[in-house]
Amino acid sequence: MIEQVVEIERKLASTKFVKSGCIYFREDIPDSDALVTNPSLCSSILERFTLGPLVEKELWRGEKVSMDINRGPYEGPQEFVEAMAENEKKFIEAHARPRMNYARSLTEPESPDEMLDLLDRYLQLAPVMVPPQSSDDTHSPTLWHPDLHLDNVFVDPESKQITRVIDFQSAALLPLFYQCGVPTMFRHQGPVSGDMTIWPKRPENYQSLEQDEKEMIDNLIGSECLQKYYLAITHNKNPRHWAALQLQDDVRTQPTCIVQNVWKDCDVFFLRRALIRIVQGWKDLCLDSDPCPVSFNEQEMALFAHEEENRGYVSEILTLFRNNWRLPPDGSIESARFDEIQNELTRMRNAFVGAADNEEDRLLAEKLWPYQDTTDI
């Protein structure tokens, strides 16, 4: 099945589009941009389909549905990178209000003005956020499936062949470096070694472990091997996607992946961290350029370090529950395990809060605990 998925992705990657956007039936938006590709598509396709704005939910969620923002089409990767920040600026100016970010401060609210200043810095750094061109061309817009998981892939039980791939309604033409990735159904929920010669192994004391511990280790090893096998096949059969995957952790590409809905999703810290990494790596990223146009002063860096430390505690908790109880960050769990996990969460929360040295630290621990009760349905 992995080989079949990689082959589907190879075919998608083999057609490069000139502009970014979404594909529509021509009769739905008759005055839209024509589809231009390399290699050229047959005339029957060009007559039937056309290029229009992006439909991804981040650009239409909540108040944005009625806003006049730039949803494309986009001429090139630079325009796309900048449009994502400009759209967020418009949203924040119209709808954002001060709010508490307890990882940053227990008393001072997070300000929309601070966020707007951060987005201005993003735009100053935007020219660096497009990776240098390479022979594999990770820049050209490419049609890609946005959510390839098992429920979206139909397989014939006898031939084991993929017969259908559904849920293409949000598929977009975007720079491959931006939307590439390991499909959800093959993605390991944890770190994976980039060295393709090293594969996970059972620990030396495996035979002495309890059965449930063995099962957990086997599941983790199986999951990691699944992703590594997918990467190995991609490396051999789809070099363009492989080249784009190497840019996923590139400091250049991270801000654009974060900036959409950054305020509403409470991801300000992660955008700030991404921009700081570009500033700190400026000399390596831009060997022949002028000095970096953006800086962060000592007070800003101290506040960032404080928040980073607090979020580190949260990350340790999330990692603990992911590794030991297979609990994802959003807290969703199958009903059969709900009581077990809830009891363990209560025990761990009491220990986390109880370890505080004073009242202020106790309040901070309560606010930072990642699995908060909610009445939302």
Concise structural overview:
It is built from 13 helices and eight strands.
What does this structure look like?
The protein is mainly α. It has 13 helices and 8 strands. The model has no long low-confidence stretch (mean pLDDT 90).
- Counting DSSP E segments of at least 2 residues, the number of strands comes to 8
Oligomer: single chain
What form results from the Cα inertia axes? globular
Number of helices: 13
Radius of gyration computed on alpha carbons? 23 Å
Taken in chain order, the helices and strands follow as HEEEHEHHEEEEHHHHHHHHH
Read across the widest sheet, the strand sequence of neighbours is: 1-3
Helix content: 40-55%
Question: Largest sheet at a glance?
Answer: 2 strands, antiparallel
| Poorly predicted segments | none
Give the overall average pLDDT. 90
End-to-end Cα distance, whole Å, is 36 Å
Which band does the percent of strand residues land in? Answer: 5-15%
Helix and strand composition category: mainly alpha
